[in-house]
Amino acid sequence: xxxxxxxxYQSNYWYNDGIKRAEIRDMSGAIASxxxxxxxxxxxxxxxxxxxxxxxxxxxxxxxxxxxxISKNVKPHDNxxxxxxxxxxxxxxxxxxxxxxxxxxxxxxxxxxxxGEDLAILQLKKAVAAHPSYVKAYQLLSLLxxxxxxxxxxxxxxxxxxxxxxxxxxTLKFMHELxxxxxxxxxxxxxxxxxxxxxxxxxxxxxxxxxxxxxxFKENTGLHTVANIGIGVLVGVLVMWFxxxxxxxSTKQKRINKQTVAFSDQIETQKSQINALKTELEGFRSTxxxxxxxxxxxxxxxxxxxxxxxxxxxxxAEDMSNAAMVEELLRINPESLGIGGRQTYDEMKDDLFxxxxxxxxxxxxxxxxxxxxDSAISNLExxxxxxxxxxxxxxxxxxxxxxxxxxxxxxxxxxxxxIVESYPGTEAADTAKEALDAQQGGGxxxxxxxDQDDGTADGSGDDDGTASAGADDGGGTDDTIDIEE
Length: 485
Description:
It is a single chain. By secondary structure, the protein is mainly alpha-helical. Among the domains are: 3-90, Serine Threonine Protein Phosphatase 5, Tetratricopeptide repeat (Alpha Horseshoe), CATH 1.25.40.10; 295-439, Serine Threonine Protein Phosphatase 5, Tetratricopeptide repeat (Alpha Horseshoe), CATH 1.25.40. It has 22 helices and two strands. It has helices at residues 3-23, 27-40, 45-57, 61-74, 81-89, 92-113, 117-130, 135-147, 151-164, 169-185, 221-242, 244-274, 291-317, 322-330, 339-369, 373-386, 394-405, 409-422, 427-439, 445-458, 466-473, 479-484, and strands spanning 199-204, 207-212. Strands 1-2 form a two-stranded antiparallel ribbon. Strand 1 (199-204) and strand 2 (207-212) form a beta hairpin. Helix 1 (3-23) packs parallel to helix 3, helix 2 (27-40) packs antiparallel against helix 3 (45-57) and helix 13 crosses helix 15.
């Protein structure tokens, strides 16, 4: 067995292990096994697709989309990842809810770091309501409940997180801490420093039952009842007397807190429409990728491949004109193609673009000569998309001159400047520099021509003036017209 066969065997072994773990909701273990499978064989499409499903199952939708998009790029056709991506894209409302849930989760992290546990809990409740399988939100919510000593709520959140991922280390750690807190709170401290057990704890199925131990307190139940009633009446009177005004202040404060939370939700909703969804990818993957970018990249890749396959079919059959095939090729985003697709694209481009550039450039010269500048600009813009430096900048120079003749001086100047910077030492660069220098001269061309005419009329021109030349020739070629040109 050679080395490559061993790698494939190891990859398949860990893939099968990931399937077994996923079937029993051991999501963390399944993720670890599938990552090891991909370490041995990066082209294991089945492992990528299953890893995406596992991520989706525990609420990490962004990570799932990343795995499916990578799988689609490795195997564009006959890949179930295409179905998964399309199903996610068919429900844009669900993606928006997940987006909002992630934003509220991130906001709750900031609130918790600043000591605002109540605001963080409110945000997390909304996050899990919008995204019920979001394991990270349940874990953070249980931690906040533990911190605020709301142990019943913490236990409820941990049960849900446990059902979603039965071996998650963070969930198991929080459950252990919750059990420790309950054990410590059930044993009071004696005078000698030892705790006296007041409860009996035992398990019944999946539930933990806590039952108090019988004590001698029951013997004096009647006396204690009367004493408790008297104390309760006294405390009630004191509460009524001293806490009326504080209760009013507390009501106002609660109303202000509710308004603060409402304003915070409005701000977060507005920010979510501007900011992109960011998430951390573990290990060897890059961090921070937006869902919108992932969708746009997937759509662009799919469209580019569809156009490429259609053009390649016509190219082999020779049943489409070169101009039509070039227009279709210009719609393709080469960066989104794989190795095989890029090779096919380059072969057709190298065959079609040079002849089409030559044809359009020649046609543009004819258009320019007959003052059809709009057609010349349209043809030359297509030449720029195929080969911006065609004929060492001559095509770009003709485009600039066409813009100038049609009244687009600013566009013409931009291309003159680019020719000077990109193609120094060429004839096109010298012509472009002369055009720029002429605009920066001491006056317009019409003013210079008027000055020359005034000098001729006064008889103060040079020895080779227009008037003398016209008089000597006596009906020959008009030298004044030559000067204006």
